[in-house]
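Risk register update: the risk that structure generation would not scale has been downgraded. Supporting records follow, first protein first.
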Amino acid sequence: MLRLSPPNSKTNFLLDHIEKKFKVRLKNSEFLSLSLPAGISCPGASACKSYVQVKNNERKIIDTPTCKFRCFSASTEVQYLEVYKQRIHNLRQLQRTKNINKLLLDGITESVRLIRLHVSGDFFDYKYLLAWINFAKQRPKTYIYAYTKSLHFLKKLNKNANELTNNIKLVMSHGGKHDDLIPELKKKGFISSRVVYGKQEAKKLGLQIDHDDSLCAFGNKDFALLIHGIQPHWNRCKRGYG
């Protein structure tokens, strides 16, 4: 069985947004997230490519040569053993099963109304992405949203964003290996997010900052995200946090 989590400190604010917009209050048990190991389940990652390496029973963050800002989820996996174990468990379950769609349907009850995919991790292969799209079709009362750098899989879908079932939202994330596909996919209706180092950078780019996942889950325009998490010394010195 997959192990899902309740809203975290950021996505928990989305519950307030939902209440205001849809006049309904979700319980914590109705809003869950599914996460996978940072970096190792992210085939399209580049600028944020960090992962946890285990050696002599100790967890250590590895920043890859392309890393410009450390993935906050990799830091979390070093801080909390249970978080790391949960994400490894989920990836192994998904990789070992012969039927991902059945695993999702059996492991997620119909009472779940909102799912945030991949607080950590990404669509690690095309079959896995298709399984979530099929899940959305079979659970029309459940709304699913996710950031992704697996843009090569979005292209492989060969569909416009509005041709997907309307209860799944996939947002392109800048800073990956396939950023060259972003202009093409924008023409198909997919929106994008971009990490910024401060409010001034977002303003210069003409992007609104998403503080509570509401722009990701329900927005229809490109937006920005403030860098967060524990950054390595070289990143702090290079860019700062103004």
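Supporting record for the second protein:
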Amino acid sequence: MPYVEIAAAPELRSLVACYWRIEGPARPHRVLPDGCIDVLIAGHSARAEVVGTMTRAIVTESSPGGAVGIRFNPGEAARLIPEAARELTNSEATLEHVWGRAGTPLEDALASALAPDAKLERAARVIDSLLLRCLEQRAGSVDRHVRAAATMLTHGMSVREVAQAVGLSERQLARRFEARVGISPKAFGRVMRLQHAVTALSEGDTLSGAASRAGYADQAHFTRDARALAGVTPRTLRDELRSRSVDVSDSFKTRRSRAA
């Protein structure tokens, strides 16, 4: 189940975390919440879907033809697809339902990247052009408070600290954050902390070391969050990482380094 990512055009990188592809056949695997919204198409489906921000992991079905998608940075998909943040948390809808016929060129570009001999780089440049056109024609404004808050929460700051740093009350921050990201700042912070811990596990840390590196007070706290967000214990996550049956994409590490 080879997984590859490539970057969007430089002028799109504040919007798009990456373009990605899982080369089929893809076996069932656990996809962890990462604070992002994706537009994707899988080999078993003829339609592209918008997958909202998740607060719990899902286990995907096997897909003989793999899958390909666009992963938006936290809070940024709302500039183009506001319905995704407001209505699709822990859910999904077809791109056609969200965008109507205007989404057809994007769906076609994603589908073209699923062909056995297709080059993701070639499809990505087509998608770049389509997204740049969308930005010109229909994009909403950037909420710089939410963008800054997402970066701070990714780096482990508390909701109170973030609200003070961006000059909003905690209630104002929560309202604006949920409208753009689809989940509360507190939930987003928990998701990011779990991502930090799982990244540490993927790099060979022990369970206790991963918990400490991610900022958990103790391993028991890590276990509670893993059960709530991933649906399994940290030990099971570690074992799934070793068998490559859990999706912890490199885009999380990319977002961390870019935000630093």
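The chain has twelve helices and nine strands. On this basis the risk owner (M.S.) recommends closing the item.
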